[in-house]
Every structure is written in structure tokens, then in C-alpha cells.
TrEMBL record:
Keywords: Hydrolase. InterPro entries: Metallo-B-lactamas (IPR001279), NDM-1-like (IPR050855), RibonucZ/Hydroxyglut_hydro (IPR036866). It comes from the Bacteria. This is MBL fold metallo-hydrolase. PANTHER family: ACYL-COENZYME A THIOESTERASE MBLAC2, METALLO-BETA-LACTAMASE DOMAIN-CONTAINING.
Length: 255
């Protein structure tokens, strides 16, 4: 398979792999280069490394995992020679497990790798190429499809985590999502607000006594029915853990 690398900015590239049309990034410095995520399978990982090495013209020394979902980490067994980086919550075996922030120098290309708490998963990392003004956000943002929720998602903190990287961004910053085309800061702000709505609107519905079974039809949501079928139970569960649950309205007699 021949990979096609699309320039995002000077010396920053992205390629898209099946299954799930997952994005993999390549950031090239004067002395070294880094892959951002590594595809679905070891075979893809090997193809990625060979293709990235040919394009970069410098050694590919690092692979940084934005989170632990299989379509982002499946290629890791083929990249054992690289320094691999993940959040400490990610189960994939990596060289460096970080919790908050770490910097890497590739030679006139500085990477800031950051975590702002549980969000899309319990192990999300942002990778900011400061000189190129590009940030790889993994599945914290999605273009062309809805953001996805799993059992480790924190709907309460997801918007706050996005605020962390939005605060470090400039108007010209380019955001590369885990799936879909690169987007601008305005897109990121809008999707941040849509994600925040899941939790805040659910809390409002609960206060009105709306049960989970009725929540999808109780208001207009910015996401599909398939997404809501997963996201709303998660939101109700997070709020229930805080003691926020719908109250049963007792009938009023004698009227």
C-alpha cells in the first residue's frame, strides 16, 4: 500500500488509514521526526514507518499516542525501535508514560505533549508543534462525524480539557482531529460547546424530572441518535454519581 501524506503546514503532514479513516501525523524537525499515532495493525505500523522515514529525510525517532483506542495504537508492535509516548492510563506498552506535560525537541521543531484530565478517554494527549502552530488532538475533536463516547469518557471534564489546548492556541492554529480534515480554532470552539451541551443539558433535564428514556426527544441535540444512545446514558451515570437524579413526580390528590 502506498501512503499519501498531505501537508498541513511546512514539515507537518497527515495520512489517513483504513479502517475507520484514522489520521496519523508526521512532524519533521532538522534532526528527527515524530509520528502521531500509528494506525490499526502492525502491518500498517511498518508501512507507516517506512513511508514516514522516506518523506522525513531524518530519523523517525518517536511515536506519540493521542489515546489508547485500537485504531490509534494497533501499529505499535512494528515501532519497537522508536521512543513511544503515551499517557500513563494507556495500556499499550510504551517507553514513556506521562501524566501532565512533556516537551520533545526535533531540531527547530518543538513538541509540547499535554494532558488536561479525563475527557474522550482517561488517557488523552494533545501534541502541539509550537513552531508549526499545529496541534494533533486525537479524538478530542472529530470532523465529518460525531465525537465518540466510551466507558472511560468524562463528559463533565471534556470541555475543560479542550479549554486547555484552546487557551494555548492562536487564531491561526490548525487542529488535526483523529478522524476527518484539519480544522480551525472556530470549529474547535463550536464543537467544544456542542460537547459541553451533552452534560449541561442533561443536568437541566434531570432537574426537570426527565428520565433517561425520554431525554433524546426532550430537546434538540447537535448529535445523531446513534451518538446520543451512548452519550446520554453516560451523562446520566456521571450525574447520578454526584447524586443528581430525576425525581419522581408524585400525583397530586384532591384537585
Amino acid at each position: 500500500m502506498t501512503l499519501t501524506w498531505t501537508p498541513v503546514t511546512d514539515r507537518v503532514y497527515v495520512t489517513t488509514l483504513e479502517q475507520h479513516r484514522v489520521n496519523v501525523g508526521l512532524i519533521v524537525g532538522d534532526d528527527a521526526a515524530a509520528l502521531i499515532d500509528c494506525g490499526n495493525t502492525p502491518e500498517q505500523g511498518a508501512e507507516l514507518l517506512a513511508s514516514a522515514q522516506a518523506l522525513a529525510g531524518v530519523p523517525v525517532t518517536h511515536v506519540i499516542l493521542t489515546h489508547g483506542h485500537h485504531d490509534h495504537v494497533g501499529g505499535l508492535p512494528a515501532l519497537e525501535a522508536l521512543t513511544s509516548v503515551s499517557h500513563s492510563a494507556v495500556a499499550a506498552p510504551t517507553t514513556i508514560k506521562l501524566v501532565l506535560v512533556r516537551s520533545f525537541e526535533l531540531g527547530n521543531q518543538r513538541l509540547e505533549v499535554m494532558n488536561f484530565g479525563d475527557a474522550h478517554t482517561d488517557g488523552d494527549l494533545f501534541v502541539l508543534a509550537t513552531d508549526a502552530n499545529v496541534v494533533f488532538v486525537g479524538d478530542m475533536l472529530e470532523e465529518g462525524s460525531d465525537p465518540q463516547v466510551d466507558e472511560t469518557t468524562s463528559l463533565a471534564n471534556w470541555p475543560t480539557a479542550l479549554d486547555g489546548i484552546l487557551g494555548a492556541a492562536r487564531q491561526e492554529t490548525i487542529f488535526v482531529p483523529g478522524h476527518g480534515a484539519p480544522v480551525d480554532r472556530d470549529f474547535a470552539f463550536i464543537q467544544r460547546a456542542e460537547i459541553a451541551m451533552i452534560y449541561s443539558q442533561t443536568e437541566m433535564l434531570i432537574q426537570q424530572g426527565v428520565k433517561l428514556a425520554d431525554a433524546a426527544a426532550a430537546t434538540e441535540w447537535p448529535f445523531s441518535a446513534e451518538t446520543l444512545a451512548v452519550a446520554l446514558p453516560k451523562a446520566y451515570a456521571e450525574l447520578a454519581a454526584k447524586g443528581i437524579e430525576p425525581r419522581t413526580q408524585l400525583p397530586i390528590f384532591g384537585i
